[in-house]
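We close this part of the discussion by returning to an individual protein. Part of our work consisted of pairing the sequence of a single chain with a tokenised description of its backbone. No coordinates are needed to read the tokens, only the vocabulary itself. The amino acid sequence and the backbone structure tokens for this protein are reproduced below:
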Amino acid sequence: MFLDQDTLSLIFIAAYDDAPNFATTSSLRSVNSLWMALADNTPHLWTKLLFNEQSHFANVDRARLHTHNSKNYPLDVNISLPQTDILSTENAQTIIALLGEHVHRFRSFDIHATAHEGIEALVAIGDQCAASILEELIITVDACTDDYDSISKFSFFPYYVIVMG
């Protein structure tokens, strides 16, 4: 007995919703070519972009896969900088530029950094276009050494929370 693709796609979505991360999607894609094609054509599986490890900022293909396979679905982007200098790498700059092209699809944008210097490059993501469907913007800075006025770039966002240590 075989499951039709719609049913299997719903099972994929349920598995992903239970553990929404790239490992889940990668596991589904690695079973066989049919599952890979089905996962690649199920946009919901690609709508949560999590960058919270150094390896995530080195993997441009992973970011491209998410932005491409999510089609035009809204994106939930979570970036937690393991260190502030991570954004100076060429791959991280490419990822930031790629995300900037999709700001109009951001449903939520959650940024966490240990110091405000790490936030500046991420704030620039909003320079390329308006985040017209953004419902939630959260910026968390563990240590702020001085007044931080770059936050004003987020004035076009409908709702935001800024937490500074």
Q: What stands out?
A: Residues 47-164 form one domain.
